[in-house]
Amino acid sequence: MSGKQQQGPITRFLSHLIQIVNKNTYTARALAFILNNPLYKGAIILGSGTAVAQMVGIITMPIITRLYTPSDLGVLAVYSSTLAIVGIGATLRYEFAYSLPKKDEDATNLFGLCLILLSVTTTFFALILLFGGDLLINYFNLSTVEQYFWFLLAGFFGMGLYTILNYWAIRQRDYKRITQTKINQGAGGSVCKILLGILSFGPMGLIIGHIVSQIAGIGTLAHAMWKKERENLKTASLSGMIHVSIKYKSFPIFDFPASIINTISLQLPPLMLLALYDSQTVGFYALAQMLIVLPGSVISTSMGQAYLGETSKMVRDKSQELRPFYVQTLKHLTMIAIPLIGILALCAPFVIPIIFGEVWREAGWYCWPLAINVIAGFVVSPTSFLHIYGYNHWRLMLNITRTIGVFIGFYMCQLLGFSIFTTLIVYSTIISAMYIIMIKLNLKAISNFTMSST
Fold first, then answer.
1. pLDDT (tens digit per residue) in 407-421
2. Is 393 helix (H, G, I), strand (E, B) or coil?
3. How many CA atoms lie within 13 A of 162 on its CB side?
4. Which of 164, 272, 336, 391 has its CA 20 to 30 A from that of 366?
C-alpha cells in the first residue's frame, strides 16, 4: 500500500473539514496547510495511533502507581536504561541506512544484513550474561536488577527486531502500519503491568510489561512486509549484504558509537541517581520524566518519523528546500513545546499527589527542572538526522562531548553535595546546551549538502 493510498482517508477527512469550516478563513487555511504538507499528514497518521497508546498509558498510570511502589518503578527505570544502552548494538545501526538506497535490492540486502547481525549480537549478549553477568553487576552497581538480568536478553532481541521492521516501514512510508503497532504496544504494556501488579509480581510485572510495550506489533509489521516485499526479499544474497555493509560502513563506524554514547548520556540519570541517592529517588525521577515527556512524545515521535521519511526523499532528490523545511519545522515544534510541556510542568507538583497518590508528591517537583531539557529535546530530536547528510562523525563528536559533560555534571553535584533538585537543574542545563549545538550542526550540514548538490 503506497503512502498516497494509505493517506487517502485522512486527506478526504481533512477536505471535508475544510468545506465545513470554509466560512472560517483561518481554520480553513490551517487545515489546507496540513492537507498539502506531507510531513504533517504523515505526522497525523503516526500521531493518531501513538496518541491512543499514550492515552491508555495516562489513564492506567494512576492504577499502576497504586499497585507498585516508587522503589519498584526505580527498578524498572534502571532496567529500561540498561536495555536502552545495550540495545543500541543489536544491528550496529545499519537500519538507519534503509532510507538511502535508491535500489530496492540494496535496501533488501540491508534488511537481511540487519537480521543476521541481530542473531549474532543476541548470541554474543547471551554469552556475556552467562559468563560475565556477575562482573557487570558488581562493576556497574546493578545489584538492584540482578534477579531480572535475563529479561534483558528477551528485551534486547525483541526491541532489535521491532526496530528493524519499523525502519523498513518508515522507508516505505507505511505510517498506518506503524500506527497500529504503537496502539498494540501501549495497550499491551499497560494491561500487562496492571494484571501482574494485581497478582503482586512486583518489579517483575513492570519489566514484563515494558518488554511487551517494546515488541508488540512485530507480527503486524512482519506480515505487511512479507506480503508486499516477498519477491524483493528473494533478491537478498550474501554478496549483496557484504556489498551494502561496505557501502554504508559509516553507520557502524560513526553512527553506532554515536548512538551508544548519546543513549548513555540520556540514560545516565537513573543509573547515577541510584548511585548518588536510592531506588526510591530513581522511582520519583522515572515518574516525573514519564509524565513530562509523555504528552509531547506523541507529537515528537510522529514528527520525527515523518520528518525522516520526507527529508530522506528530499536528500535522494537533492532538493534545495532542505534548509527552509528544517527551519520551519523547528519553529512549529517550538510553538507547540513551550505551552504544552511548560504548563504541565508548572502544574505537576499540585496535580500529581491527587492523581497518583500522596506518596508520589516529590515526583511533581522534579518536573520543573526536567522541563528545561524536555522542551529542548522536543524541538531538536525529531529533526536531527545528521547521517542522511553524510555527517555521522559530527554526531559522534557531539555525543561524546555530551556524555562527558553529563558525567562531570553529576560528579560535581556529588562533590558539592547538591540536593536532588539542584542536580536535575545542572543535568537539564547541560543537555539543553547540547541540543542548541545540535541545531547549529544540522544547519551547517544542510548548507554543505545543498551547496554540493548544485
1. 999 999 999 999 999
2. helix
3. 22
4. 336
